[in-house]
Amino acid sequence: MAKPAVVVVGADKGGVGKTTVSRTLLDYFSANNVPTRAFDTEHPRGTLKRFHPEITEIVDMNSTPDQMKIFDTLSAVAPSVTVIDVRAGLMSPTLAALRDIGFLDAARSGQITFAVFHILGSSIASLDEIAETASYMIGAKYFLVKNFINNTSFFEWDQATYNSYFHRIKDATELTIPKLNEMAFEQVEVASVPFLKFVANKGPHDEAANYSFVLRGYVRHWLANVWSEYDRIKLTDIVGSTKQPASRPAGEK
């Protein structure tokens, strides 16, 4: 069995598109035949589960039994990758809990692969988050994600100031999630399906759908650009999976 890999997607600031990034990761792993499960920490309602219900479980990260559901089963379940979509305001407490249970020590010793996708906002608060997160990132793959999906403008502060925060974390890598056409994004939200299913014109249960050809084209092009970023950082290699020929969105090479 492959070494367990845990991918945390989060930020303490709300409204930066954390779940959107989680959805692109789940589609990317699916297209590359990487067995994956997901946990949605927006308890009790959940958002990620609405789009990926078959592989997603809603949990309360403040609950010890729910923490056990995730971390006591890392080596006992078939999926080699666990994606945790951390709700707004819970990033720092989640990392502190991972420290307290010994997870970070296990990651440092190489027993577990740990990657963090830190979704940045456009305010100085996001830079403060980087400083707070730095102490937890020893032994982790750390990605700072500029997510333009919400029409965010980066960055309003002085570049030297940004660099002073960014360089506090050794080997941190920047990623860019480009903007998706607003109407296309809204249509996927209404359809409540993964981006891949929307592109393939399929409904929640793989039934034939009738989504707009134009909007599917926008999503296809956007998703291919997002996946190019994941290819650039060799994400499948990071999580320890042998890269299979990816099922790219139809029409993309």
From TrEMBL:
<protein>
    <recommendedName>
        <fullName>CobQ/CobB/MinD/ParA nucleotide binding domain-containing protein</fullName>
    </recommendedName>
</protein>
<dbReference type="InterPro" id="IPR027417">
    <property type="entry name" value="P-loop_NTPase"/>
</dbReference>
